[in-house]
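Support case: user asked for a sample of complex input and structure output to validate their parser. Sending the pair below.
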Amino acid sequence: MPHIEIINSGLSTTIQDLGRTGHQAKGIPVSGAIDQYSHRLANILVNNSEKSATLEFSILGPTIEFNVETFIAITGGDSAPILNDSNISLNTTYPVKKGDILAFHPMKSGRFGYIAFAGNGLQVESILGSRSTNTRLNLGGYHGRALAKGDSLTIDNCYQMPSLVNRSLPWNEPTGNSIRFIKGPQWNMFSESAKQMFKDGPFTISSQADRMGFRLDGPTLEIPQKNMLSEGAVLGNIQITRAGQPIALLADRQTAGGYPVIATIIGADLGKFVQFSSNSPLLFEEISLKEATAALRSQYHFLSELADSIYQKRYQYPIGPIRKTSKKIEEMIFNS
Amino acid sequence: MIAYKYDFVPAGEQTLHIAFPEQIDVSENQLIQELAQQLRSRFIYEITDIVPAYRTLTISFDIRKTTYYEFSSKLKDFLAHYVPDTKNDHGRIFEVPVCYDSEFGIDLEDVAAFGNISVEELIKLHSTNNYFIYMMGFLPGFAFMGNVPDQIAMPRLSAPRASIAPGSVAIAGKQAGMYPVDSPGGWRILGRTPITLYTPNNPLPPFQAGDWIKFSQIDRTDYSAIKELDAHGEYQLKIISE
């Protein structure tokens, strides 16, 4: 059976997709790629549905041996990928064949990387409509856990990639240190000074940062006196703990929370936020709900335009390749 | 007509809370559960997830299909004309077996002392009540229930324990709950149920918010027998009434 074999696990390498939505009412966390933008981009580059399962890794990528013919694309942080001893680019689609080895250097910047595999991604059982892994609950993905040396994952062969030469996008390091937010549901419970301190920052991402959430270091905020009843926890919510410390709730967040939420990081900036280095201070910048809506919509628009533009180039030269025969056909056409 | 006041609160560009009066109240929560079901089917195109909690209904929608402004105005319109279902069956009652052995119920003595009653009286008080499930979460299978009789409503520990065994049946003030997986927690533990509340292969719990739980006392022999049956998937929770 076509598959990939894990030679070295990398760090926290898990199978993720867009998440297990629709079951939070029963306490099932959403999970899914923590940087959804990079996950979607990787899938688009290899002609997959955005729902296809990718491999997510943190800081150090896995070493993978291919026992399959397919195409891959790597997105996210600057993970310095190496295919058979040659450096390859991020945000670019490459063909791989049996025996090829993909490895990584530790990330130069960013925190999370994604590997997408053509032919609709990693084939593991879908549980409640998702292949995402939640390691705390031992749920989904590959036996509910992070990958380990020796694991073998099923992938379908994929021999064709329309307009392969156009499947590349420049990789740019995110610029600026501001993360945009909209007021959270409990914004008005906080004192004026707490709100101002939140906006003045600066904050850094602490060492307590995982797929559930990032605790932030920075000024200690005055907390509201009143307790609140638990309510639905939302992706990007910034809770303030009893100690006055912000926690941003991310992919593996619990379904409900009882700490007041001062702000919500806008969807369009979540990818930038989760890739932020611990060494760089960040500032929160308030925008309106209308602006946040426009920003996320334009991000979705960018991705769908990208998919369309690649697709439209499929009949431009060079066509293909259907790798096994393309070289031969090319010779026949151009030497005749 | 909806008998409660409510507000729309943005919780993200793709999520809003409908916030009802801030209280723990069975009829208010029953309305929230009913609305969750109705809205899920009525706005199937827009809604991606919906989470009822004590006094809020959290609704996530797909921003590629609608916006906060457009969708909240649709919802407002729907709610303004909403007629609550008077035939609502108001949930099922599940009977959950609990062994109150002192080995499991590590806080029985303290809670009995708090209520100025014997451990036997405490067990009787705890297991004669029906508990309403206000919400599920923060973990799969964790039911936030109420209301614990005032006499035994002992507040949670000031410092949480590092680890609580799965199946532990506990209270925290007026709230009752069960721990589905090994996790830290500060609730007062009265006993343990032999049934599996969470398993990764079949992660959905049998009960949901809006249902009721009644605890029934079992001894150590029953505990082992039910645990054995449950491990083979042969134990079914008794539903007392639908």
